[in-house]
Design goal:
The complex is a heterotrimer. Chain B has twelve helices and 18 strands. By secondary structure, chain B is of the alpha/beta class. In chain C, the strands form two sheets. Chain C has a two-stranded antiparallel sheet with strand order 1-4. A two-stranded antiparallel ribbon of chain C has the order 2-3. Classes of the chains: A mainly alpha, B alpha/beta, C mainly alpha. Chains in contact: A-B, A-C, B-C.
Chain lengths: 325, 398, 295
């Protein structure tokens, strides 16, 4: 028994180490096609986006439709850091620092949405997030320092499979631990019944601020990875269509589920690439797949259910927090 | 129940992993058996997304260019006739899809050169990928200076070329045309501020016009997708300009011009290359008569190459070719010329031959590369819209 | 003379035209929301279909304006009812958000399906002869007059339908409590179908008038207009028909007024910031009322 427990303690660093080593060797050798590698990196970035939006839309039950805005803030902040503030010659640690700073800038912006959410709920909050997306996109278009509609240039290619894996794993680990913490129960209680949650003594304001900030932090991280992967960002990359894409991945995979986010991001991204031979009809088939999936599995592939490995062992023993089917 | 769910999940994950890997491997097998006398060229076009018309023209012209060549027996490379095969990918007008389709074309389809994407948003990320993979890329239509320049090093990219001229040159030509030929003293500008190309044209026009003694009386903007310009046009009407510079895509132009006429504006409009689509004539009707705009080429040109191109295109697609079609056709022409000159279908040899091309007789005029940058030296055509047709008015060479 | 009287009148007419189009589409959103609490994201694309069907009716069937309008409205009604039948009804008891995502999917499908058939934007031929009357410095066009007149008529008829008829009563009852309504013997499914039909009819009519005013149509035209109409519906208080009408005019006014006084580049920033502020002070829109939560 003791051996199992200590093995479990070692599980997180072990997976991290093995994963990093594996992704490092893959990107340095020619074992895997560059195209496959790129698609896998897209899956990773989309997974971070999906999971972070799932925190707000799935676990907390709000309806945020402007998630791309946090991505934009993270992308632009990190790009400014690597291009203007620090010279890359200072060392390889600049990049993770830039990504985390991008995430933090975006978390601060998340506060701007969290505060109205105390009063505004449901579809009205959806409009607030939508308006926020439009405002920020419009501001970027009007600020010449950020390149305006021409986009921000001169970003180096710093995102590699290793970093994508590292940050995806970090997102998974942090959000999983958050969801199964006391705050996490607060988050779920807001989804089930906000009034009851308040009566039970949940500090809903604090929970909302934390959730929104955590969610936008990871969206910012994903944006930073995106910017340093494509080496070019423009306001158009972060419009409502991008936000809609993230929404679709969340609901395709399943709300309130980490496994759902993994599946949603990978199925959507891979399908989009696999259907390429269809040419123009690809974009006709994709939404049909989505509609059929929603009709036959309305909660998404794994809505409100969880993959065994993602549930903490302590959680499995107590029946208090039963997983709905 | 739980076990069953977990099994399903495991299965789903395994399936998606297998899908990814088969996507990687199955295509590789087919390319291994690639026929020895076929040269593969990749095309990345905006078939879906915000500018589908651009993608459609690009695809049409690409298919025609290759068909014409293959029907004539193919390309002679080192004493052997080779056929050309193209692989067309859709980038949905998005940067990340442009990047992944470029990567797919290079690693899985093993193309020797890439034509496209047309929008700068897609062309810039693609050029970063082709630069790393050392595959030449020609964008037919992206006029953003940064497509061919590496901003980090401040020097031209080695493998990125374009078939069109730069916006700065076009903006200057138009400002001088307004000032000297149209004798305008006051100009108003209305443009799409969310488009990097159009904003650039408006800025260059404004600077050059003011530097040459003119004044800009109204500087109005809108964003992509807007259909109602009445407020901006009312402001322009009140500023009484002599000419209205309108760098707008051809799908917006008719709306703007018609709404202006409804508001009683009679000032002439001046357009940029974004107007150059035969669709404009259909969409605009008589409203655009008498206006001038700059273009990459003129379908009414007297050059025999252009006449043949227009005739063939119209026979195939029942549509007058627009500038994207002409530029795509020229981009293919440049690649074919380079392969012939190099006597090899190796990417590096093609790249070197492209940079040495001098005075290539294209559909859009004579194209030369200086060998230093990927930007060609070529002229601007000014067209006049008259009786529902584009008429050649004048050529301006650099 | 930037702010002369004639300038203001001219801009006021512009506001009326834009606002009435937003209002017509917003009504479709708000009615569906009222009965199903579903944001029907496909509605903007039904509007787009309206414009394309009108184009086909006018170009292929060579119909004059009024018959073309009627044909268009009939087809969009069928499409609206069909969407509800095939895509939304199976999800009636599913989580609300899956229906919303289905709606998004249906919208994307309609856009790209139209695109696959017609990649180039299309031009609507001039069906109504446009005449411009100049009064002083104000120019009034016949198209502007037709749009405002038809929109206002449709809105008055709809308001009457919702407030005075049995259908309207049933509609309002469903939006109050969908579970109690069948107990009173009201055929819920039929009322919901009728609501979709009515919403799609208004959307289709808006598409026709939009293509009169702005005669270039493309498959993506419904996206931005759809979002803006949705915003109008929310500003007015979603679920409330009169609110949606007011919201449409408010959005039109803000968009045009911002362009009047400020550089037009800042239009979106100012318009959406105003929206942001409005929702902070009136979290349920202008006409919406907060319902007390049952404990």
């Amino acid at each position: 028994m003791k051996v199992v427990a200590s093995a479990k303690k070692l599980a997180v660093p072990a997976i991290l180490l093995v994963g990093c080593a594996l992704s490092c060797s893959v990107s340095n050798s020619n074992l895997v096609d560059r195209y496959v590698e790129l698609v896998v990196m897209y899956v990773g970035i989309n997974f971070i986006l999906t999971l972070s939006l799932n925190l707000v839309n799935g676990y907390m039950g709000e309806f945020s439709v402007g998630h791309a805005v946090f991505m934009a803030i993270g992308a632009y902040t990190s790009a400014i850091i690597t291009v203007k503030v620090f010279s890359l010659s200072l060392g390889p640690w600049i990049f993770p620092l830039a990504v985390l700073t991008g995430g933090m800038a975006s978390a601060l912006a998340g506060l701007l949405v969290a505060i109205p959410s105390f009063k505004i709920r449901g579809d009205y909050l959806a409009i607030v997030t939508l308006a926020f997306n439009m405002i920020v996109k419009s501001i970027i278009e009007n600020v010449d320092f950020l390149g305006g509609p021409r986009g921000y240039l001169g970003i180096a290619k710093l995102t590699s499979l290793v970093w994508v894996f590292f940050f995806s794993f970090m997102a998974l680990w942090v959000i999983r631990n958050f969801v199964y913490s006391n705050y996490g129960r607060g988050v779920v209680s807001i989804r089930e019944d906000e009034t009851a949650a308040i009566i039970m003594g949940v500090d809903t304001k604090k929970v909302k601020i934390m959730t929104f900030m955590l969610s936008s932090f990871f969206a910012g991280v994903a944006g930073a990875l995106y910017a340093h992967l494509l080496q070019f960002i423009s306001p158009k990359s972060f419009d409502i269509l991008k936000s809609t894409e993230i929404l679709i991945m969340v609901y395709l995979g399943g709300i309130g589920s980490i496994a759902g986010s993994v599946l949603g991001a990978s199925v959507y991204t891979v399908l989009l690439e696999l259907l390429r031979p269809l040419g123009i009809w690809r974009m006709v088939i994709m939404p049909l797949v989505l509609v059929f999936l929603m009709i036959f599995r309305p909660k998404g592939i794994t809505g409100l259910r969880e993959f065994k490995w993602f549930i903490p062992s302590a959680e499995k023993k107590i029946k208090l927090f039963k997983h709905k089917v | 129940m739980k076990n069953k769910l977990n099994r399903i999940l495991m299965l789903a994950m395994a399936v998606s992993l297998v899908l990814i890997s088969t996507a990687g491997c199955s295509k590789k097998d087919s390319s291994v058996k690639a026929e020895a006398d076929v040269i593969k060229i990749g095309v990345i076009a905006e078939l879906t997304g915000e500018i589908p018309a651009v993608g459609a023209s690009c695809k049409n012209a690409a298919e025609m260019a290759v068909k014409t060549l293959n029907d004539s027996g193919g390309l002679e490379v080192g004493g052997k006739k080779m056929k050309i095969k193209i692989q067309i990918e859709d980038n949905a007008g998005r940067a990340e899809q442009a990047a992944s389709s470029a990567q797919k074309l290079i690693t899985q389809e093993k193309v020797v050169a890439i034509i496209g994407p047309n929008s700068s948003g897609g062309a810039i990320p693609t050029s970063e990928i082709t630069e790393t993979a050392k595959i030449p890329m020609i964008t037919p239509w992206s006029t953003n200076p940064k497509t061919t320049i590496d901003t980090r090093l401040g020097k031209p990219k080695r493998y990125a070329f374009r078939a069109c001229y730069l916006d700065s040159f076009q903006g200057q030509v138009l400002a001088l045309f307004a000032k000297n030929t149209l004798h305008a003293k006051k100009a108003a500008i209305l443009f799409d501020s969310s488009s990097e190309v159009l904003k650039g044209q408006a800025e260059v026009f404004k600077n050059t016009f003011e530097k040459n003694g003119g004044s800009v009386s109204a500087y109005e903007t809108y964003t992509q997708g807007d259909r109602n310009f009445s407020a901006q046009l009312t402001n322009i009407k009140n500023s009484t300009p002599d000419v209205i510079f309108l760098p707008s895509y051809y799908s917006d132009v008719p709306l703007e011009v018609q709404q202006a006429h409804r508001l009683g504006i009679t000032t002439p409009f001046l357009g940029s290359d974004a107007w150059a689509s035969s669709e404009l004539l259909k969409l605009c009707g008589k409203d655009c008569d008498g206006y001038y705009f700059s273009s990459h080429y003129s379908a009414s040109s007297k050059s025999p190459d252009t006449i043949k191109f227009v005739k063939d295109y119209e026979a195939l697609y029942k549509n007058t070719p627009d500038d994207v079609a002409a530029l795509t056709f020229d981009a293919f022409g440049i690649v074919f010329e380079a392969i012939k000159a190099a006597g090899s279908a190796e990417s590096e040899a093609i790249r070197n031959a492209i940079s040495k091309i001098k005075g290539y007789h294209g559909v859009t005029g004579n194209i030369s590369f200086t060998g230093e940058t990927g930007d060609p030296v070529k002229g601007v055509v000014i067209l006049e819209i008259k009786n529902g047709a584009f008429n050649w008015y004048t050529d301006v060479n650099p | 003379m930037r702010l002369g009287l004639s300038y203001l009148i001219q801009q006021f007419l512009n506001i009326l035209q834009l606002g009435s189009l937003y209002a017509l589409i917003a009504i479709g959103y708000t009615m569906v929301y009222g009965v199903l609490s579903l944001i029907n994201f496909a509605h903007g694309d039904v509007f787009m279909l309206g414009a394309f069907i009108f184009f086909l009716a006018a170009l292929w069937l060579k119909l004059p304006f009024i018959p073309a309008l009627i044909v268009t409205v009939c087809v969009t009604v069928c499409v609206g009812v069909l969407i509800e039948r095939l895509a939304y009804r199976p999800l009636r008891n599913a989580p609300k958000m899956s229906a919303v995502i289905t709606a998004l999917g249906v919208g994307v499908f309609l856009e790209n399906f139209t695109l696959a058939l017609s990649p180039y934007p299309q031009h609507i031929p001039e069906i109504v002869k446009n005449r411009a009357w100049v009064m002083g410095q104000v120019t009034v066009s016949s198209i502007q007059t037709i749009i405002i007149a038809i929109s206002v008529t449709l809105m008055v008829i709809l308001d009457f339908l919702v407030r005075k008829t049995r259908f309207g009563m049933a509609l309002r009852a469903i939006s109050w409590d969908i579970s109690a309504v069948p107990l009173m013997g009201i055929p819920v499914n039929r009322i919901i179908s009728q609501t979709f039909a009515l919403g799609a009819a208004l959307g289709g009519a808006a598409g026709v008038m939009y293509s009169l005013a702005y005669p270039v149509i493309d498959p993506y035209m419904g996206i931005m207009i759809g979002w803006k109409a949705f915003i109008s519906a929310v500003v007015g208080g979603i679920g409330n028909v009169r609110g949606a009408m007011t919201g449409g005019f408010i959005l039109g006014t803000v968009e045009i007024a911002v362009t009047m006084f400020l550089p037009s580049t800042y239009r979106d920033i100012v318009a959406f910031t105003l929206l942001f502020v409005l929702l902070i002070f009136r979290p349920h829109g202008i006409f919406g009322t907060a319902r007390s939560v049952k404990l």
